[in-house]
Design brief:
Growth Hormone, Chain: A
């Protein structure tokens, strides 16, 4: 064998070795990106099972509680675009570590606050720390994996986040009922310290054989390109409507709605939010396969919003349903809403790959505006429908009709989302 052939043969072996080892390392690094996303989701969704405790502890109404919890989104939403730009510029390792530290500080402030203002500040810090979580997962996906896997990883990443929402349901309700909600939040903060330390030592910004992924030029160059495309705005508005099952039902108002409708504890009622999250996780994980089967992103997105509307209309208004059929309807609606996660793939396929984090941040800013808008809005609508009765401990006593009146706004949002799909262009062949 000639020297040239030996060199070529050696190169082929090295490439094969790299092909075998790189994916396992990539999945390992992505898993730690997922761990932070899962953790911040626990902090995000945990107030949903302690709304009554917050109302009683701080002496506030449903509207004020909605605003308190939405302070997470007051930080999260405006930071989406800056986080996308910063992650593209500096990489996910540093961003995740600093963000985890902010979440820990926010959880401690929230847990130890005895005034609404300090509680709001704690939620604000948690939102600021959480802003990069999903963006960094998709940045890792765009750098460490082939682009053909992006749609699949986007769905699986969202599924991993929903696992955090599940932990924030029954397990967190059990913990807070046994230890008190303040101690439960402090325990969550301690877990965050571990996540922060491990992230710094495990996450790498790029594979060793790749050139630097740092984007040259001004910080706002990618944002200007992305914001100039009307399609990115349409996809973002669609995502806003389709995140409502999580930020409205699973994260906040679903548990008190089920408690009032069926006269059950917060631990049992939290199963409703868990069903939405489990369904959403399943929908996210199979959305790319369904899209490949139909060779269309748009068809799946249209199916998602249609069946989500039908499912939650059943949850709110179908007469005579007992608790478990309602849980089944919430589970199926969660699956349908999970199909919509293709909005991240659509916007990714519609923009330059080097601005992957910026495009995701832009879309996620509009997506998460759902919590920014609807969590306090529904609280205000509940207060508007309230007849003025109080419970024995002096807290406002809300009736089933109050929750149904407020949650009807979500159904109107789904209808608007269905209209928006008509104007979204197909990107599958891209």
């Amino acid at each position: 064998m000639s020297l040239a052939n030996k060199v070529n043969d050696s190169s082929v072996k090295n490439v094969k070795r790299e092909d075998v080892s790189a994916p396992s390392k990539a999945w390992f690094i992505l898993a730690y990106g997922w761990s932070f996303y899962l953790y911040e989701y626990i902090l995000r969704a945990s107030p949903g099972v302690i709304t009554n405790e917050l109302i009683a502890d701080f002496g506030i109404s449903a509207g004020a509680v909605g605003t308190l919890i939405a302070f997470y989104y007051f930080a999260y939403v405006p930071l989406q675009i800056p986080c996308g730009v910063i992650t593209d510029k500096f990489g996910p390792r540093m961003v995740v570590t600093i963000s985890a530290l902010l979440c820990v500080i926010g959880a401690v402030v929230f847990a130890t606050s005895h005034s609404v203002v300090w509680a709001q500040f704690g939620r604000f810090l948690i939102g600021a720390g959480s802003a990069c979580a999903y963006i960094c997962c998709l940045k890792i996906a765009s750098v460490w994996f082939d682009k053909s896997k992006f749609a699949f990883i986007a769905g699986i990443s969202m599924m991993m986040g929903t696992f955090g929402g599940m932990v924030a349901g029954f397990p967190f309700a059990k913990l807070s009922n046994g230890q008190g909600w303040r101690n439960a939040m402090l325990i969550a903060a301690a877990v965050g310290v571990v996540v922060m330390i491990v992230s710094w030592f495990v996450i790498k910004d790029k594979p060793d054989h790749k050139k630097s992924q740092i984007v040259e030029g001004g910080l706002l160059d990618g944002l200007k390109i992305i914001a100039a495309k009307p399609q990115n705005w349409l996809v973002g508005l669609y995502s806003l409507m389709m995140f409502l099952p999580l930020c409205v039902f699973a994260e906040l108002w679903g548990t008190p709605y089920l408690m009032q409708r069926f006269g059950i504890s917060n631990e049992l009622a939290s199963c409703g939010g868990i069903m939405v999250l489990v369904g959403y996780a399943i929908g996210c994980s199979v959305s790319s396969k369904l899209s490949d089967y139909w060779q269309s992103r748009r068809k799946v997105m249209a199916l998602s919003v249609t069946w989500t509307f039908i499912g939650f209309a059943v949850v709110l208004y179908a007469p005579g349903l007992s608790f478990y059929p309602v849980l089944a309807a919430m589970f199926l609606s969660g699956i349908a809403s999970g199909f919509s996660i293709l909005y991240f793939t659509t916007v990714q396929e519609n923009n330059p790959r080097k601005y992957s984090a910026t495009s995701v941040g832009f879309t996620n800013a509009l997506c998460m505006a759902s919590g920014f808008i609807f969590q306090p809005l529904l609280g205000k609508l509940i207060d508007y429908s309230w007849d003025g009765n109080f419970s024995a401990d002096g807290a406002p006593l809300y009736a089933l009709k109050d929750y149904q009146f407020a949650l009807s706004a979500v159904l109107f949002a789904f209808l608007l989302g269905r209209v928006i799909v008509f104007f979204i262009q197909e990107t599958y062949k891209k």
